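Journal club side-thread
Mid-discussion, someone asked how the predicted structure for our own chain would compare to the paper's figures. Pasting it here so we can look after the session.
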Amino acid sequence: MLNSDLHSSISAGEQERRDTLKRGNRFLGRVVACSGSRATIAAIAEKGETTLSELWSVGRLISITVGENRVVALVYSMQTATNEWGEEIDNVFRIEVELMGEVHVGLSGREEFSAGISAYPHLGAIAHRIRAADLARIYDTGKSESCVIGKLTQDDTLDALIHVPSMLSKHFAIVGTTGVGKSTAVALLLRKAIISDPKLRVLILDPHNEFAAAFPDLAVVIDTDNLDLPFWLMKLEEFAEVIFRGRPPVPEELDILRDVIPEAKRAFKGSDSSLARRTSEKSSMTADTPVPYRMADLLALIDERIGRLEGRTDKPHLRSLKVKVIGAINDPRYTFMFSSNTITDTILETIAKIFRIPGDGKPVTTFQLAGIPSEVVNSVASVLCRMAFEIGLWSNGGVHMLVVCEEAHRYVPADASLGFVPTRQAIARIAKEGRKYGVSLGIITQRPGELDPTILSQCSTVFAMRLSNDRDQEIIRSAIPNSSISTTSFISSIGNGEAIAFGEAVAVPMRMRFTRVDEKNLPKANGVAVKITDETPDTVDLRNVVARMRAMNGPDISGFQQAYAASTGTSSSYQSPAEDEYADNNGFVETTPVARREIEACAPEPYNPTMLPRAEPPNPQLERFNQIRNQLLSDDPAPQPAADPYRQPLRPTPSFAQPSSDQPRPSLRESLLKKPLSSIIRK
């Protein structure tokens, strides 16, 4: 609805003062040329005076009287007839304008603005300064649920209005170079949107960790310290992006994952061995089904395939895949995916926390991506965007989701060969189908030329701030319907905090200045504008810095290997002799007495024996060869054979890396030549 400020502005416009100039107070010039969309106006500055010429400037609206109507035009170019200016002579100048619409008397008997023109200006028609009341009518959206986001640049006494439901239902974009105020504009628009729509839940993909300071009272901050995003929520392509560290997956290894992940999910559910049950589950569960499973089961299935006699050609791929999986589990940066909290079925808690359902008075989630490894950022963004769409789809309109993508050109680049395909598909699905299910998209970028033009074209409302790159300007002109070069010609020179708003949320293209946001609600990058500590370069502890760089003081997840080794009956190289560690029923390690008592209280769930790798039988010939080799390399006489020489206890193998004497150890050939033949023949 129109606020009181707008009503007062209209009233002031109706009683506009005309005391400084008589007939010429608003008289500027006359039309000397006109076409279907543009007109040329000639004006005179008498005796070098600039009183009237100061009313002209690029980007301002003027009106041209045509009978009872007033045609509204936008100034986009101006120059003198001689390209010179005389001080004491009359200066003739020409103004090029674009026709925008007209103010006329509607059916209700009240004056209103329409984008069409019923009567074009004739030659000699008078052009004059537009009334404040006409400006208010032009920029009035004429709809309820409109809100004020700033002031008009042409007249700072008039409010800049947008229609929030139109902005959200058909998506919006904010573009502009670095430092022009994009983040501040986003914070302002999101606060207006939350007030307008109580059902709205906002998810901000924040790569710079700056929006947490903008919503101290409305947002929940999620970072790597408090994030639990289970690996089993990922689809196969997203999980492969994590395992292969952002590189293209090996097709054979991807096929193995596609086969073993459903089996690991069925093992976690404890399915029985009946053929009918397994057949039904195999048909209903795929690698993309969001069902929990254990990484120990996944590795056990891979080991089982390695131990089979058939499929020798697959063994190199199986071993390579196993190394990649264990490497990802060992990486402390991936703790948010492979921690002990991610094994149980926590999908309800995860969705409730990330997407603020019910919300508890904080409908905004700032998802800080700066601490997440760069090779998995695309996977995380894909999971979040995909789940946001599915929540809007399956909630039957009960939840309105708004996904705000800061630096969106990272996720949906213009080059189809770049970026991550599932992330592009998830964002594109929101852009194309989201409005049907109450899921909105907010795009923020400083390089619209590097953004997928299909995504940008789906944003029906665009706030174009200063853009200095010619290609970026051209992208904006081509993406905005019904825009012309005159409307966007001054994008490269508007000031900080200014924008030109196009699209569904505004009545006509509007040049405006955003309202200033309180200092306490300004977006701030954590490392630049927020004072985190009193330490200085003279007192900072470099050991702590290096430890954080190496991710050494994060939660320890190496216990997974101990639990896996215990389940397979092998010794673990990760066991510390100074620690008494116990594996819990989820395959992870707890070292505290409290956790130990809890583990003893609950019986662990056993693994399916058929899923564990088979232990290879000992090879008597290999043991005998090692025994003879050790005997030859040592100076001691050969031991007496036992009753069964193939089961004789082996002698300790000497260390070849550290010889016992200063002399170099002789080779096997030299040892054979020095010993008599009778000593090495078993009688």
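Post-session note: The chain has a mean pLDDT of 75.
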